[in-house]
Amino acid sequence: MKKFNTPPYQQSSLIQRVRTLFLIGLMVLAAGCSTIRFSYNHGDTLLYWWLNAYLDLDSDQSDWVKKDIDKLFQWHRSTQLRDYAGLLGKMQRQLADGNVTQDELLGDYRDIKARTELLAFKALPDLADLAMSIKPDQIEQMEKKFAKNNNDYRKKFISGSVEDRQKEHFKKTMEQFNLWFGSFSREQEAQLRKLSDARPLDDEVFLQERILRQKKIVATLRRIQQEKLNKEQTMSAVHGLLRDFFDRMEAPERKAFYDSYVDSTSKFIVAAVKLTTPEQKAHAQKRMQGWIDDLNALAAGK
């Protein structure tokens, strides 16, 4: 990316809720697509489009942003993908044992979180350049995009009845379960729906947290732009912002909430796995092997 003064930091919209584990983490482990290889090979373009939707990059920015995204993907491909394959292999073995435990799930969660942090902080130097290049009208564009996304979230997860909201959550859950285990019987879906509905509807809290993150991002970008921070100062500012995002689950005012959320979600997943048949577990094993093969092929440059 455009070089200014010194070393690392991070960006702007890209931190949008640090979900910015980037699309990479999502594509590789959450695997919303059945073929990781296809998605990953187009990931640089998808990441650029996503970033551009928040900032409306100008022609100069577009040129070096694309180059830096390409460099990030090259690093990720050559250093991280075999580790992701190893993690999926561990999950395969856990499933093969037939009795996945909550402790195992939480261990997998910690592994993924560590990989996410590594990716985010690896991107800091280039993202610092991006943050320093952002103009006031681009910050306004980001705020509009945040507002639109928040309105969409309210319509989907907050404005409806309890029944509608539970139905939406269950729909998203079943999309993931079907991806991993194949189709479920009506009886299984009925049991899963009961388990899903028993979880608390915490959408209002998640929206509050989302808006808080957005405000911090915008305030940091405005400070960088108005005070004309140099690269070292910018890196420090955004490093603190990222650290705050990653550590948010330990914040005194939210720790109890997030601990409860992680506990209830992991217990739900364990219960759901126990409901699956040997055939469904075999389907998941085969699915994971396909992803492992894809990851190893990608790591080999294929």
Q: Tell me the distance between the termini.
A: 26 Å
Domain count: 1
| Alpha-carbon Rg, integer | 20 Å
Q: In terms of structural class, how would the helical and strand content be classed?
A: mainly alpha
Please report the total strand number as a whole number.
0
Number of helices: 14
Quick one: overall form? globular
What proportion of the residues is helical, as a percent range? over 70%
Give the rounded overall mean pLDDT.
85
- What fraction of the residues are assigned to beta strands by DSSP? under 5%
SSE series: HHHHHHHHHHHHHH
The major β-sheet equals: none
* Uncertain regions spanning at least 5 consecutive residues: 1-34
Please give a handful of descriptors for the protein shown.
302 residues, mainly alpha, 14 helices, 77% helix, 0% strand, globular
Characterization of the model:
The protein has 302 residues and is mainly alpha-helical. The protein has one domain. 77% of the residues lie in helices and 0% in strands. It is built from 14 helices and no strands. It has helices at 22-30, 36-41, 43-55, 59-79, 81-96, 102-122, 124-133, 136-157, 162-181, 186-197, 203-227, 231-246, 255-275, 278-299. α9 (162-181) crosses α10. It starts with 21 loop residues before the first helix and ends with a helix. The relative contact order is 0.17.
